[in-house]
Please model this.
Amino acid sequence: MPPLKKILLVQYGHETNTFNPFPTTLERFGGKEKILTGNPLCDLESTLPVYREVLARPDILPVETVNAWANPWGRVSRETHEYVKEILRRKIRENGKIDGVLLTLHGAMVLEDDDDGEGDVLEFIRREAGPGVPVFAVLDLHANVTEKMLRNASVLIHFDTYPHIDIMDRVRESARLMLDTLDGKIHPVMAARKLPLLSEFLPTTEGIAKKFQTLALEYEKEPGVLTVSLAYGFFCADIRESGMCVVAVTDSDREKARKIADEFGRTVWAGRDLLQRSFSMIDEVLDDLKAHPENKPCVIADCCDNPGGGATGESTHILRALLKHGFEDSILAFMHGPELVEQAAKAGTGAEIDAAVGGKISPETDGEPFRCKARVTALTGELPRQGKVAALQVGKMHILVQSGNGQTWTPEGICACGLDVGKSGITVVKSTVHFRHAFEPLVRKIYSVAGPGMAPQKIRDVKLTRTRRPVYPLDDITDADAAGNNGALLFSPYSDTGG
Model:
């Protein structure tokens, strides 16, 4: 019987908002135990079982390493990063020869002393595993693809969708390509075009982002094309290599990979003026609802206080505006407040408590805590992403407070508190786009609001000091410059696993 082929499985990710001044420590990954077993309060479910599902062959031995993910926050501490790398080093060395590595990364991790967290991980794994080992990584659609990442990975595959509803599909795709590579059926070659272009956070269900998604899928139908994806970048990670990037992977055809990356990059550049979003101010939204009550039930997305972008989830600005304008028939989901959840749990359902909602971590940005008398109407057990939730009623308003710091993806936590989005006039969610997949069918209108918060939505609203210039839309760049010399075309030296 031939020796088993060992494939290392790694999940390690963080989307770093460098405008958030608070460090991401080991505790935000759930502590040392959760780095191995997975953090149930993070936005990403474990992808390791899905890798194992595809790799279920008698000649394959999956080797699990870390299952470490933290919700977006400030720069990751060096101590945390080195702790993860030491686990990886130990796993690689104790298993001897490694035949392949499958990673789920984010692509926008920034360390306290290094702007390229994933590049450092991939370089480390390449050095430990060796030049001839295929290293495939699945990345978030908002990855900032760096030269170091491209130099050390064999294949990069990005999520196609935002909301990210295709994560596990991309994981399966990566695992299948790995098996085909190890079986000698394919020989991946990767090319990428970096663009001097920043994008705001666009849903791929509409507009130019939908067009780009469709184009990537069309390229993948061509003979010999293995995968094509577009990384939109994450401008809230203010690093030199922030920005958009096209990645194309073909079977042994370097020229075709180059051609697709170049063509797709030029198409993206041509649509650059459509990569910005429009937002409303909260007073404008509430005035519209006064004039058009038929728009209820509706969702108001508190985009700049999105924990999924590195904000606190503690902003009280919209809460106060709702009360000021007389919109008490509302649900707020979810305010971060572990101490308040604990206080409500001790008091019990039905009790009245003196509550201080929000505004604890960064009151200068989020507003002062909203102090009120509230009745505890529901208490939940541990929920994915949200942790424990306490439902507090203030007049007719329902404020849902979570012990975790996840953004609002689904109405699950709302339903667990006995509330119904479809029967509430207004539901405020702490999210930018991810909520849309689950909430759109339940309401008549969605309002996207930009206001104070640590997750800025408009590129021109932030002061970028490290991002490479010139860059659009901050600088006036000609088409020739962007599509030519300044739009770098890069190849992975480790494609075709040949070193």
Q: What stands out?
A: The mean pLDDT is 94. The first strand starts at residue 5 and ends at 13. The chain is about 30% helix and 20% strand.
